């Protein structure tokens, strides 16, 4: 997971998040990864109790930081202003808006399922992962045991031949992936619409200009 393990409560958003990544080896070969991060309820009472203790420690630390006056440079600076007194929140207010109560809240922990592939079949991998997650969270069991679908994807679905498409069965519907021929453009299975939505038209044009001018490009993502 990009930012490690995370916890949330029922008040936070817990929609599954899909992301992709690339593993580049020293010889230049690439392996493509696709991951779906989701949240499951924590059932261990020990973990819930430890999380509540950590929240109390965090709130107490934040309270001390907010109420520790800065080192005065003069006698006038030692006296707090009315604005500082009004802005300093109380400990009870911090605990009310930034806390976890084991008797009131439900704790969720992030988990992740991932597929590693030799080619970037992003759309197909996303459908496979989303259907597997749906099978786990659905109150109705899937038509076949869940292990059979995992085994099918790992050991029975071949790599599509060059210039051909492949269709195989997922948990709830078919999954299709296509491999371009040598006379076509290289495989690019990522939606271009998301690129323009995230970067904007001007930034995309600037990146395209830098690529044409062979300028080094470094992209840094702040999203999970």
UniProtKB/TrEMBL annotation:
Stored Pfam families: DENN, uDENN
A molecular-function term among this protein's GO annotations: guanyl-nucleotide exchange factor activity
Keyword NAD annotated: no
Keyword Cell membrane listed: no
InterPro entries: cDENN_dom, DEN5A/B, DENN_C, Tripartite_DENN, uDENN_dom
GO BP term, example: retrograde transport, endosome to Golgi
Region (Disordered): 65-85
GO cellular component: cytosol; trans-Golgi network
Keywords: Guanine-nucleotide releasing factor
Residue ranges occupied by any UDENN domain in the UniProt entry: 1-224
Protein name (Swiss-Prot/TrEMBL): DENN domain-containing 5A-like isoform X2
Native species: Labeo rohita (Indian major carp)
């Amino acid at each position: 997971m990009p930012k490690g393990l995370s916890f949330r409560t029922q008040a936070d958003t817990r929609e599954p998040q899909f992301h992709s990544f690339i593993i580049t080896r020293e010889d230049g070969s690439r392996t493509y990864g696709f991951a779906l991060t989701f949240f499951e309820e924590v059932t261990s009472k020990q973990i819930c109790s430890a999380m509540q203790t950590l929240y109390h420690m965090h709130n107490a630390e934040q309270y001390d930081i907010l109420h520790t006056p800065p080192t005065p440079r003069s006698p006038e600076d030692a006296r707090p202003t009315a604005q500082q007194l009004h802005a300093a929140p109380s400990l009870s207010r911090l605990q009310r808006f930034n806390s976890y109560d084991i008797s009131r809240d439900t704790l969720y922990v992030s988990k992740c399922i991932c597929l590693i592939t030799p080619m970037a079949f992003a759309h197909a991998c996303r459908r496979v992962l989303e259907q597997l997650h749906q099978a786990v969270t659905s109150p109705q069991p899937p038509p076949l045991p869940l292990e059979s679908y995992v085994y099918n994807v790992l050991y029975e679905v071949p790599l599509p031949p060059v210039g051909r498409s492949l269709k195989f069965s997922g948990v709830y519907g078919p999954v299709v992936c296509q491999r371009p021929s040598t006379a076509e453009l290289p495989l690019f299975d990522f939606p271009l619409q998301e690129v323009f939505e995230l970067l904007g038209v001007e930034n995309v044009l600037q990146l395209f200009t830098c690529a044409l001018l062979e300028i080094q490009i470094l992209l840094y993502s702040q999203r999970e």
